[in-house]
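Q: Sequence in, structure out?
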Amino acid sequence: MVMAWLRLFQAHFNVTIGDKYYYKNKNGRYETIDGERKAWELSTCIKKYGKLEPPVAKNLEFFIKLRNKIEHRHIDKREIDYLIFGECQALLYNYENTLIDLFGSEYSVNEALVYSLQFSQLRTGSQKSSNKAALSKDLKEVMSFVEKYRNTLDDDTFNSMEFSVKLIQIPKISNTNRADAAIDFVRWDSLSEEDKEAFDKLSVIIKDKKVTIQGANVKRFKPSEVVNNVNAQLAGKSITSNLHVTLYKLFEIRPPNGSDDPFDTNTRYCLFDETHGDYVYEQEWIDFLVHFMQAGGHEPSELRAKERAGEKLDISKYEI
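A: Exactly. Output:
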């Protein structure tokens, strides 16, 4: 779908501005790769087009970043299908609507779009394998990315059907017409407030409804707090703030300052706080450092020498 969106924009630019959707150097000549002109990628096309509604643009941005995350990772993609079902459906709807806006309804592909069914009552066995698969580092990082991206969105964008489709699946008790579909799919935004309230009550009956009031960075620690907590547990040893920097660099739990992707962290130990533009650390990182320093054989001078030499340590070999 990322490629489909790219080709759609290129077709639009070809009609509106001609064969000019390519990068140019400062001297005015086209940039080339292996002798071929370098075309605008999808992110640039979105900016150049400039007419997408914010939720549509955010949905596309989500899939561009997700594609980059999973493209070179060994992940069974089905394991995250259920997690991003709403975003996937919105991606298709948005594509169809934009295609019609740009080229007319005669190019509509809606007859080829098939609704994918989710059999939640049959997932008991598959959930167990999914949970095991979720323990893999790659999959955990992808799922963490999905959660963090959603948390960056304002309520209007997140709740928009253009970012993620929310549907209610209602089995029919009986059909007067036996040719009718067995299930009705009702769009959430088409329901009256009374119907929404009734559905919320029904949800309580069907499943336990957990309401969580979240606070930002609860039980997460600033660098100075990490150092203080580690030193409080070390017997006869201590670390400094400078040594803490050395350690997170050696174990690569967060990217260096100025990284193109500040969210590229080892989410078990560290998270990027977009609001404040810095990093916070999990309790697991404090526990790991205490274990690592108490294990012995890790002199600060030796660790700093490794960091200056550009060496990295495989954190999995030292984990508790």
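The chain is about 45% helix and 5% strand.
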